[in-house]
Every structure is written in C-alpha cells, then in structure tokens.
Amino acid sequence: MTDTPLQLDSFIPYRLSYTAGLVSEYVAGAYQAWFRIGIPEWRVLSWVAQSGEITQQDICARTRMDKVTVSRAAIALTARGLIGKRRNPGDKRSHLLALTADGKDLHARIAPRALELESRILARFDRAQLDGLVAMLREIDAAVLSLEETGTAD
C-alpha cells in the first residue's frame, strides 16, 4: 500500500470516468440536435451498421451498456424504422438486428459528422499521441477484463 492520499483529479479510474462522461455529454448534445438520436441509440445503430446483423446480447457485450438500455434503444430505433429484427436461427430466443434502408441512410449521414466531431475534440493531439492513447485504453480494458475473469477485485 501507499501512504499517498487519494487525489481524485489524478486517480485514473476517476479521470477515465469524468472524461468519458464529459465527452459523452458533449457528443450526445450534438447528436440530439443534429439527428434526434441519443447516445444509446447511436451506439446500437453503429454496432448494427458495423456488424451487418447482431444480437442485443452482443451489443451489450461490446458497449458495456446494460440489457435494459440496449433493449430500449433497439425499440426506439425499430419504432423509427431504422432497424429491423429477425429471429436468430442460431438461438431461437434472440433476434438479429439489421439496418433498414432508412437506418443505413441515417448512419451514412451521422458517421462523417461523428468523425468530424471526434477530430475537433482531439485536434490538439498528433497521430502518435492518439495511437498511444487508444493502445493504452485497450491495455486498460484487457487488464480489467483479466481481473474480472480471475475475480481479483478484493
């Protein structure tokens, strides 16, 4: 153990959470203003677009969003005619989500704006810094997942 007192502003778990929340709130406002879509709906729409077809369970695993949030987002996107569902032939209890033509159109309009927004947020960093950040975040993900698997949170 260390004798150094906990300082939240330099405590990495807090910094990650704070920064993620700050970025997410900013991006959510933009998506809502531009396309009347929230972050959960955007994440579901994006994973469906990237995957072609995907189950809600797989989206939960890839986004770390809970089942209720993913389900509500899928219901909202279905109601807007942006995604469709079909029974999963590999698992009769689940459905595969796929973009409709309108969903593909919306994704094609949002994706470039999302990338441009990301560029504006990260403009002060060079490519090497950004690549390093992404690599470090992936390493943190792997470390936490490894700790979860071994049950060593205590």
TrEMBL record:
InterPro entries: HTH_MarR-typ, Metal_resp_HTH_trans_reg, WH-like_DNA-bd_sf, WH_DNA-bd_sf. Keywords: DNA-binding, Transcription, Transcription regulation. It comes from the Bacteria. This is MarR family winged helix-turn-helix transcriptional regulator. PANTHER family: HTH-TYPE TRANSCRIPTIONAL REGULATOR PCHR (PTHR35790:SF4). Residues 1-142 form the HTH marR-type domain. It holds the Pfam family MarR_2.
